[in-house]
Design goal:
The protein has one helix at residues 72-89; strands spanning 22-35, 42-50, 60-68, 105-111, 119-126, 136-137. It is mainly β and 146 residues long. Strands 1, 2, 3, 4, 5 and 6 form a six-stranded antiparallel beta sheet that branches.
């Protein structure tokens, strides 16, 4: 048995529920290249952190991109997604996934239709100069009225 002196009431816990669907300013906070489950290809696991002001600030959203895959269509779709991400952060020639880190962009987040406990990233957009870091949820409610 391990002796502890821990008071759980002193620790604020965050929700693990998915964030509401909408557009959020985010940055790639972490990236990792790993083999696909079959072992016949490589994928990129990306962690995005929401930096928009509002209740989702600091929350994380994950995505997996099939970079190399034995099925041509799967690889093409993955590489197209990676290209959209690169264009959104202004990188033409990606040589290391760390190049994607900490560059603000807008991600369009949805809720996975097959698993309502998970978020998915539907789109990447370049962050325009002068955009205030706030989120816009699909119901059209501006952040200052939530």
């Amino acid at each position: 048995m391990a002796q502890l002196n821990f008071n759980a009431s002193e620790i604020e816990t965050s929700s693990h529920d998915p964030i509401p669907a909408g557009n959020y300013e985010a940055v790639v906070a972490a990236s990792e290249m790993r083999p696909v489950k079959s072992g016949n290809g490589m994928g990129i696991n990306l962690t995005f952190e929401i930096v928009s002001e509002g209740p989702a600030k600091g929350r994380k959203v994950w995505t997996w991109i099939n970079y190399q895959h034995p099925k041509a269509d799967v690889q093409r779709i993955g590489q197209e997604e990676l290209a959209r991400l690169c264009k959104a952060v202004g990188i033409a020639n990606l040589t290391d996934t760390e190049q994607l880190h900490n560059i603000p962009l807008i991600i369009s987040v949805g809720v996975d239709k097959n698993d309502s406990s998970r978020n998915i990233i539907k789109r990447y957009e370049k962050k325009s100069a002068g955009i205030v870091a706030t989120s816009t949820v699909d119901d059209g409610t501006p952040p200052w009225r939530r």
